[in-house]
Amino acid sequence: MAGCEGYEAIAHVYDKLNADIDYSAWADFVERCFDRFLPRRPELVLDLACGTGSMTLELAKRGYDMIGVDGSADMLSEAFSRAIHAPSVLWLNQDMRAFELYGTVGAITCCLDSLNYLLSSEDLSKCFACVHNYLDPGGLFLFDMNTPYKFRNVYGSNAYILEDELVYGEEDADEERVPVFCGWQNTYHPETRICDFDLSLFEEMPDGSYRRSDEHQQERCYELEEIRTALRSANLELIGVWSDFDFSTPDDTTERWYFAARAVKS
Question: At CA 95, angle to CA 153 and CA 106, rounded to 5?
Answer without folding.
Answer: 90
